[in-house]
Amino acid sequence: MSKMAEELRKGSDVSPPPPVDPGLARCLRQKDEQIAWLMQSLAEKEDAIQTLKGSRSWRWTRPLRMFNAIKQYLSRLLARVRREGWKQTLRKALTVLHDEGLRGLRLRLATMSNSAADYAEWVRRYDTLDAMQRERISERIAGFANPPLISVLMPCFNPNPEWFREAIESVRGQLYPHWELCIADDASTNPAIRLILEEYNQCDPRIKVIFRKENGHISASSNSALEQVTGKYVALLDHDDLLPEHALFWVADAITWHPDSGVIYSDEDKFDTINGRFGPYFKCDWNHDLFLSQNMVSHLGVYRTSLLREVGGFRIGFEGSQDYDLALRCIERLEPRQIIHIPRVLYHWRVHADSTAQSMEAKPYALLAGQNAIANHLNRCGVAATVELGDPTGYRVRYALPAELPLVSILILAHSRPELLRQCISSIVNRTGYTAYEILIIDSGSDDPAMQLYLENLAGQNNTRVLRDTEQFNSAALNNFAVEHAKGELVCLLADDTEVIKPDWLGELVSIALQPGVGAVGARLWSPDDTLQHGGMILGTRVASYAHKHMPRRYSGYFGRAALIQSLSAITSACLLIRRDIYRSLEGMNDSELKMAFSDVDFCLRLLQAGYRNVWSPYAELSHHESACLRYENAVREQNSFASEVMYMQQRYGPLLLNDPAYNPNLSLDGSFDLAWPPRIQQT
């Protein structure tokens, strides 16, 4: 326990401020000299650049540079057109032009990477089986003690005959032989479909077919297919999509390792006849909050057959999102450990004009069905909430606040930057819609007369209290000290260089924090240049990185993940709200090994270990100016504390830092959601 905490426990008075630490002052002077040198160096480089741009050779090569830029724009644009068609591409371009102007449109084109080409190379290297890998898979299948029978469920209605054959053949070509294909034809009017089904039914005894007498749409036909199932698990496959040859092997492997699993899902990608495979969605492990924002199970979705029948199969009235509704009803009967994610692309979703793989606009009723499915789920679980259409790729669950609002203690550590603190406090008072709060400012030994005068005038105003601590700066210890003095049922750690943007920021955080099982809740923080500063934290590089950092506004991020409520392994203490009793049950932040950096990451990981989940919401928005903490961080780096804290985190959490359950091993460790070269998974 720190000396400050001991004084608090004994009830002793806070001592007067000590003289400034000479070592810290020396580090700050050295850092100021380094900054001055860097500024001079940057100025010299800028002069050199301007000289180059004014040269004759630069002017003469301008047409060539413009030609290359236009060529890159056109290649990216044509790749989008080939995937989505002129109509869809033009509609999206006009939307961006309307919302973000010409500059936004140029930025979109400039940042549209050649991901299709990158992914094609990634697939060639890491997701294409060779003869040796096929042999190893066959050996592993032969070693299964009780290989489960997997029933592939396929409702169909007037599919493209060529695509239909390809879908069936993708099942027949599975390396795992213990499967059955249960097809229900929903009264197709194309006679070619019946001929195809009769042909396959006769040539392969593992293919079962039922012909419905009347069209009942996808839920009814899926239930008809389910009636034929004899396997222990059911895998869902649309009549025009494809399974890679190793898909059912990895499903059977997961069942072998997790025999009590109820729901299994994999990563997925898209494909068409022109571009091949593209648009991979590398998902995270089970994420309750993200699942209420989008159907992350989707493809490939696999369910225990007894569970499907227990919940009554597919429900009529949820067509378009019948799989989402099914998964929601299934997870209600499972523990999180029974929901298994396979971090491999085991499903290829065909893109065509009538597919939701192309755009949700192809089936707008599917969005409403999904909204209704989530609302039904919340109602069954007794959760007071409403569901809204959120980001184009998902939904927003808006949790109800109790009639009597719980008090929130907003805890702010301040040090010698009165202009930032004034801006922060003013934004809280003037822009916060949630009314039940107090502000508790911890003055960490500031010696600025202007700061002292501001704090003296502030104390007692707008439910504001000021405490003073004179220990050497230790953010973790200061937060622990503040929590012990807080009066609120909830506490919100808030950096003094933040600024409230939206009035409902605090209400949003509180409404989520009050949900069962929730630990820390974090906000979306924007940099002053209007790019994303904090979209949650992804474990990986050294210890952790900010997700989607520097992403421009109006972008929704990787499959909407910068714009959807979700669970994350860690969030920053620049804005972190939590119930005070949970904070104290963990004995607060680690103020001995982690005095400056990573105490928030460590705290969040200990919450995970205690059985809580940490949630990030994009609907609580603040600006984060970040300048106030820089000199402390620089001083710490000079004193080698940063390196020792990195080492502590790596020794304590080890493999977890390389296998963030809220991320994917096929993505890079820097939190950018780019492809990992190579992925962090065993190939076979």
3D architecture notes:
By secondary structure, this protein is α/β, with parallel strands linked by helices. It folds into three domains: 77-112, no CATH class; 124-359, Alpha-Beta Complex (Spore Coat Polysaccharide Biosynthesis Protein SpsA, Chain A); 408-658, Spore Coat Polysaccharide Biosynthesis Protein SpsA, Chain A. 42% of the residues lie in helices and 19% in strands. The protein contains 22 helices and 22 strands. The strands form four sheets. Strands 11, 12, 13, 14, 15, 16, 17, 20, 21 and 22 form a ten-stranded mixed beta sheet that branches. The radius of gyration is 28 Å and the shape is globular. The relative contact order is 0.09.
Major beta sheet summary: 10 strands, mixed
The global form is globular
CATH superfamily of the largest domain: Spore Coat Polysaccharide Biosynthesis Protein SpsA, Chain A
* Strand element count: 22
SS field, number of helical segments: 22
Gyration radius, in Å: 28 Å
